[in-house]
Design brief:
Blueprint lengths: L1 H5 L3 E3 L15 H9 L5 E3 L3 H7 L1 H13 L10 H4 L2 H7 L9 H7 L4 H12 L2 H4 L4 H14 L9 H15 L2 H4 L4 H13 L9 H6 L3 H5 L5 H17 L7 H16 L6 H14 L7 H16 L7 H24 L15 H23 L3 H25 L7 H5 L13
Bound molecules: 2-acetamido-2-deoxy-beta-D-glucopyranose (2 copies) and zinc ion.
Zinc ion (ZN) binds next to α11.
């Protein structure tokens, strides 16, 4: 209820417009207050999108009208139209590492997540294999896309589409493609598409220090990831996409999607990485074993989630700008409310270049180094190649800005020591 109210855009007669809940999670209670005084002085205006989010039965109605093909005017939002022209052309190369998700998002009118995921379900034969109702699938994907906050500079549906596209590239790698079952592919794509669902645009420490209800609900542990997972489960159940499967299978699906999404908690990276490393050292990974396959899929999703620095410079740079904008926005709120500015969030002391170099050094290089040991393919070499070039480019920017290169952002050193690799080692 809090979440729904929080999404209402509030506007006073004087034209003052507060920012939306997505960017100010702690402000939920203010929104409730404003909501109750709405009748007297404050005019509450609800955008079309938020009306739909307000009550899930309204969403239900809309979907079922859509379902029956009535009252929905011809609109460029509809998937059939996405298949026209350039977007369709791009989908033919959906397995290319150079795939430009920003362009694809523009060509599909902001529907990249729906179009791309639907296409991948089709491409992998999942619709046929699991006897999926394509209208239910589309409805599910539309709900997923809408539950991302489009006002987040980074954690929005385009990031989810990008991660899903990267996941598809990894699923195609020879080692995986020859051992994965349709079930594995299904879970991987759903987990990738939903892994940041309803992300509020701030990080876990922020939610904890502002006593956000999600921090309480999930006891300060993988707060965001648990929320993404539970939101995904909610939409899966609401869509009825798998209603024809046994309860046992649906429960298994929900818990396995949870294992995949929870693996994207970056503060747990070191645990996953040391497990990965010891498997590779012992050479005992056996992909006929379902548990081993699921562990590899967790690693693949982790890679997909932080693969931005492994893309071409043009794409990578745009992601860097977006994520920094989101960090700095959090820092601005923290300053305004004297909450203590989180590491990497202070626009006075941080730069994109410093943040990126730290991120690459401590998180991306160790992970992709091990991934390349596991899957030593052209794709892995391409990714490591971009990573090296992009890091060099940011170092160039850093030198121009400060006149002294080779600084690694000290903020990374202050972060949870779990994040720091004990023994950075690239294959
Ligand atoms: C919708 O598109 C169809 C076929 O493309 C066309 O026949 C129909 O007239 C269109 N309807 C509206 C309301 O534009
Ligand atoms: C979560 O962290 C806050 C702030 O450190 C603390 O006050 C609270 O007791 C913690 N909650 C749980 C369940 O650990
Ligand atoms: Zn993510």
């Amino acid at each position: 209820y809090i979440r729904m109210l929080g999404d209402v855009r509030v506007r006073s007669r004087a034209g003052f417009e507060t920012e939306r809940r997505g960017s100010h999670p702690y402000i939920d209670f203010l929104f409730i207050f404003l909501f109750f005084v709405a009748n007297s002085e404050i005019e509450v205006s609800v955008s079309a999108r938020n009306v739909r989010r307000l009550l899930s039965f309204q969403r239900y109605l809309r979907s079922s009208r859509f379902f029956r093909g009535i009252t929905v005017p011809n609109s460029s939002n509809i998937l059939d139209d996405d298949y026209n022209g350039q977007a369709k052309c791009m989908l033919e190369k959906v397995g290319n590492w150079n795939f430009d998700i920003f362009l694809f998002d523009r060509l599909t009118n902001g529907n990249s997540l729906v179009s791309l995921t639907f296409h991948l379900f089709n491409l992998h034969g999942l619709i046929e294999h699991f006897q999926l109702d394509t209208m239910k699938l589309r409805r599910f994907l539309v709900m997923v896309q809408e539950d991302y906050h489009s006002q987040n500079p980074y954690h929005n549906a385009v990031h989810a589409a990008d991660v899903t596209q990267a996941m598809h590239c990894y699923l195609k790698e020879p080692k995986l493609s020859k051992s994965l079952t349709p079930w594995d592919v299904l879970l991987s794509l759903i987990a990738a598409a939903t892994h940041d669902l309803d992300h509020p645009g701030v990080n876990q420490p922020f939610l904890i220090k502002t006593n956000h209800y999600l921090a309480t609900l999930y006891k300060n542990t993988s707060v965001l990831e648990n929320h993404h997972w539970r939101s995904a489960v909610g939409l899966l159940r609401e869509s009825g996409l798998f209603a024809h499967m046994s309860l046992e299978n649906r429960q298994l699906m929900e818990s396995q999607i949870g294992d995949l999404i929870l693996a994207t908690d970056i503060s747990q990276q070191n645990e996953y990485l040391s497990m990965f490393r010891s498997h590779l050292d012992r050479g005992d990974l056996c992909l006929e074993n379902a548990n081993h396959r699921h562990f590899i899929l967790q690693m693949a999703l982790k890679c997909a989630d932080i693969c931005n620095p492994c893309r071409t410079w043009e794409l990578s740079k745009q992601w860097s700008e977006k994520v920094t904008e989101e960090f700095f926005h959090q820092g601005d709120i923290e300053k305004k409310y004297h909450l203590g500015v989180s590491p990497l969030c202070d626009r006075q002391t941080e730069t994109i270049a410093n943040i990126q170099i730290g991120f690459m050094t401590y998180l991306v290089e160790p992970l992709f180094g091990e991934w390349a040991r596991f899957s030593n393919t052209r794709l892995s070499q391409t990714m490591l190649g971009h990573l090296g070039l992009n890091k060099a480019s940011w170092k160039g920017v850093q030198r121009e800005q400060s006149g002294s290169g080779d600084d690694v952002d000290p903020a990374f050193e202050e972060m949870d020591s779990d994040i720091l690799p004990q023994e950075p080692r690239l294959s």
